[in-house]
Amino acid sequence: xxTNLAERVAARRNHTPARQTSRGTVAHQQPSLVQFVQxxxxxxxxxxxxxxxxxxxIARIALTELRRVEHLAECTQESFGGALMTCAQLGxxxxxxxxxxxxxxxxxxxxxxxxVQLVIGYQGMIKLFWQHPAAAxxxxxxxxxxxxxxxxxxxxxxxxxxxxxxxxxxxTDYYAIAxxxxxxxxxxxxxxxxxxxxxRRSKARDSGPWSTDYDxxxxxxxxxxxxxxxPKSPELARAVAHDEAVRRDATPEGLDVPPDxxxxxxxxxxxxxxxxxxxxxxxxxxxxxxxxxxGAADGA
Length: 300
Known about the structure:
Helix content is 34%, strand content 20%. By secondary structure, the protein is an alpha+beta fold.
């Protein structure tokens, strides 16, 4: 007994044991993923669009996320590399600071391992919309119970929103509006109940940005519904396809392969100007959000 104990103590001194997860499986050690990220710098550099930050910045953000997000360092290298390459190829920063994309640990029941689920954020969807040459305007807003809000569908659709100056109450609806350079426009309105129905179907419904940035995710949800009826750039179409999915192929061709949606579980912004009136469709003049975001003027 004492001999076995001495051997175990000696073994601990010479070897760092694999950490056990709450699921009872052996976890990947963080240094292995850190080294993996470092080794991917060349591939990230080749995948990044010319106008996006250096591969060193993407790698630093990824390493920060590994330290910050619980269980992320325990995910498989294949899924982590796939998510990171998707961000690189789409030109999105993988972290919550800018709200462009989120890397979430996802427990895959089938293989009994953590995998990375990529969630495209509200700002990421907007950024990719501007890459379409016909994009001219995009906004998404939250409607509160004391706002003045009416809309009509049909041959002459109309949307009018006058935010209350104070005591706006609880959210009741979300809407997104887009205008194209050819003069076409479209909007989508969703109630809080509509958004909640979609949130409940998400594997990340109780974690990640849904728990920390609910309003932004609700606006992203209505934007995503709007994108179904709009022309999309290739990058935006791929982002919609890979949103909330697991990619295990980190090669450049992996972005064009349908990602994997698996049953499992994920583990653990500015409002409209007060008194502003919006009529849609219209000329969209004076939209604060219609200004091209940083980098878009250069073809982002």
